[in-house]
Amino acid sequence: AEEHLDLDDGRWEDIHVITGALKLFFRELPEPLVPFGHFDKFIAAIKMQDPVRRGRCVRDLVYSLPPPNHDTMKVLFRHLCRVIEYREENRMSVQSVAIVFGPTLLRPASEEGNMAMHMVFQNQVVEHILNHYGHIF
């Protein structure tokens, strides 16, 4: 059954409702936007010391995503880049956006291991893609 949303309904005026819904959508996917099989590869790429190699590797990984994932990522990150353009008003810097979306968009298949450590790199991956959006897409 298709749901019809009335976007003129007052409750949609609260930006936190919209962003919460967006985050929840990505969080509730059976598999994250970055498939489990890509998680370790993205983490390995972001750990590379050489910025040129790191950049090339992340871009190649984004291109290697299944087309629906790649296309969704492109649209989502284009939107997030727009959000960041207004960071003076909305206080959403690249770092803030990465903290919000990092763990939602890419996470390991099992929640074992060093979660805090993962978190740092998950955020760095999102930050990198935001900072190099034009180059990657």
Automatic annotation (TrEMBL):
Keywords: GTPase activation
InterPro entries: Rho-GAP (IPR050729), Rho_GTPase_activation_prot (IPR008936), RhoGAP_dom (IPR000198)
Cellular component GO terms held in the UniProt record: cytoplasm
Matches recorded under Pfam families: RhoGAP
Domain Rho-GAP residue range list: 1-137
Coiled-coil region list: none
Domain of life: Eukaryota
Protein name as catalogued: RHG27 protein
UniProt gene name: Arhgap27_0
